[in-house]
Amino acid sequence: MNIEFEPKGVCSKKIEFSIEDGKLHNVKFTGGCPGNLPAISKLVEGADAETIAQILRGNPCASRGTSCADQLAIAIDEALKKKAS
């Protein structure tokens, strides 16, 4: 399942990833922090999607109330809900 998600309230403009057998693959952020976001992508590669969403959910960036990591968690949640439907 390939996902494209438009994050809200953050610097990144798009998050792309796939979920295969419950595992995250090929996470890519367009825009945003050029050091942190590629690192997140590497760290979550092959990890359980639900677990990563739990870990990243609610992580804020400054006073934005969200972050690119939080937006990834939201995107994963939405993708998993769609798949379950």
Task: Tell me what the structure shows.
With 85 residues, the chain is an alpha+beta fold. Helices cover 40% and strands 22% of the residues. The protein has helices at 36-44, 49-56, 68-84, and strands at 2-5, 14-20, 23-30. Helix 2 packs antiparallel against helix 3 (68-84). It is globular and about 35 Å long.
Q: Which class do the helix and strand fractions yield?
A: alpha+beta
Portion in beta strands: 15-25%
Major beta-sheet overview = 3 strands, antiparallel
Radius of gyration: 12 Å
User: What is the N-to-C succession of helices and strands?
Assistant: EEEHHH
What global shape is seen? globular
Mean pLDDT: 96
Beta strands, count: 3
Measure the end-to-end span: 14 Å
What's this model, at a glance?
This protein has three helices and three strands. By secondary structure, it is α+β, with helices and mostly antiparallel strands. Helix 2 packs antiparallel against helix 3.
What's the layout of helices and strands?
Layout: E1 2-5, E2 14-20, E3 23-30, H1 36-44, H2 49-56, H3 68-84
Helix pairs in contact: 2-3
Question: Key features?
Answer:
single chain; 85 residues; alpha+beta; three-stranded antiparallel sheet; globular
